[in-house]
Amino acid sequence: MPSETAIAPPTSRIRHVATDRPWVWLTLGWRDMMANRAISLTIGAALVLFGWIISLLLFELGIAWAILPATAGFFIVAPLLAAPLYATSRRMEAGLPSTLADAMAACRVSGSQIAMMGALLLLIHLFWIRVAGLLFALFFGIGFAPSLARLPMAMLQSESLLPFLVVGTGFGFALAAMAFALAAVSLPMLVDREISFLEAATVSIQAVMENWRAMTLWAGLIVLLTGLALVPFFLGLVVVMPLVGHATWHAYRDLVAR
User: Fold this and answer.
1) What three-state secondary structure class fits 13?
2) Which of 143, 147, 140, 144 is nearest to 167 (CA)?
3) Residue range 222-232, pLDDT digits in tens
4) What number of CA atoms fall less than 13 Å from residue 241's CA on the CB side?
5) Cα 169 from Cα 171, distance rounded (Å)
6) Distance between terminal CA atoms of the chain?
7) Which of 53, 108, 169, 257 is at 20 to 30 A from 156, Cα to Cα?
8) Could you list the residue ranges that cross the membrane (predicted)?
9) How many Cβ atoms from other residues are within 10 Å of residue 18's Cβ?
10) pLDDT per residue over 161-200, tens digit each?
């Protein structure tokens, strides 16, 4: 039996898991995704479409540079978008069949709390986009506005690129780490239990701190898989998004005990 440390809320405890446990979560996530292909791939495809719409909107507004930070912000808000996947894995664990309607209905049990957690993650995302815009203007100048086709080369030719990447990556890493700690298990927990989003966030932060080695590997795997999925203009998210979503449910079940 894994050792356990009592935390708030009193009915929840954090389990300690092996450092390589994230590989098991991915394996179980793949199993759930294959067993619920229609739901999983529909949600993944919807996310890809959403990414295309946002990118097109930013391009039409003449702020093509914002596509990169907006895309990077996906790591912050993705746990919220995966809520129906947590519900699907939960039903599968209970031996119940699932439809997309079932998954969406299950999320309504703690809908207000999920919405508040989503609002918090969205605020972090919007703050990151604002910071990225300020950094872009600071390092490249307000008048730096090449077309989308010329933007990568124009940035590569600029002496400001390296300091921009260093500072921007630092800010982005800090915000992403904060969002990861808040959402690592809180959203699947809200799908599973009727608790407040503050309680769920507290549990999530302590789960990450108590299992920092395993969660560092888990965060790295998420970044790697999602980064590769984003390269072909978001298309890889059709598979990676549901895979990570289902796996996150199993991370929650491993890390948090009643």
Assistant:
1) strand
2) 140
3) 989 988 998 87
4) 32
5) 6
6) 14
7) 53
8) 38-59, 65-87, 127-149, 161-187, 217-244
9) 13
10) 677 778 877 887 888 889 899 999 999 999 999 899 999 9
